Amino acid sequence: MPNDTRKNIIDIHCHTAGIGAGESGCFVSPALMGSWKYWVYLRAFGVTEQELKREGDGLVMRRTSERLAQSERVASAVILAMDGVVDANGNLDRSRTEMFIPNEFVAKETAKYPNLLFGASINPFRPDAIERLERAAESGAVLLKWLPAIQHIDPADERLIPFYLKLKQLGLPLLTHTGKESSFTSAKEELGDPERLRLPLFLGVTVIAAHAASSGKSQGEDNHDRFLRLCREFPNLYADISALTQINRLGHLQRLLKQTELHGRLLYGTDMPLLRTPLVTPFAYSHVLPLRRMVEIARIANVWDRDVALKEALGVPELVFNNVQWMKDTPPLP
Question: Keyword Hydrolase: yes or no (predicted)?
């Protein structure tokens, strides 16, 4: 454990969800709702469908805030909205959208809790995308989140140049999924290729590659290798370390940490609620951690504190936990 154990860490990658209860505007597609993943996610969020119907979708964020308040290490979390797929006219296409969590709902709910921050999501192919981006910034958004393979967004599309320039002007970083996507029922995997981020990087946008492109291949090459090549070219490319302790990504965190020159550009994230599933367990690391240490970590009650302890044990330096230079204005700690 580091000597400085102040509660000062920001989780930049934390999801929420909703079924439309309490007039939230959220929805989940029939395909995802009919999948076993839907029930896993509800359990991981610590809610039941009946509770959401009774109390409203804001319950997910309330319980997230309550659990986070009990952490001794993590001060706040960015809660991510989730825009959907749009049709040829730029309107929301519900038939191709697996999950929709509107900005207005997330902005309203996060404003209730001092330890939750607003992460916006806007499909840039909406006709009013720039206006939506300005409204999100006015509502306190600290970043913009994309999941290209699910939202059908090609970051390399030159039609997005005005949107990117507005992002840069507003000082909002783009947190975008890189690598293979397996949390939904279907995905356009080619859109997770890190090389597709060259356009916003060239234009000077601060880009955060979620999961450091730690899974999948593009054009026969590991996505992670393509990410590392971009890092050498663009100092405005960052990455978060969310999901990198999951059992389906074993070894990726240690591989990333070998790139010591990137430690100043690695950011702490959890990919909550996946952190609260069997995908993450210290006992998956018996090849690198002694049994006593794994047991100590497993006994930590708070899920954020347990995650920090596991990542520290695996070699994540204190610098990574304290990196906040991605933010235009660092918020005061709660």
Answer: yes
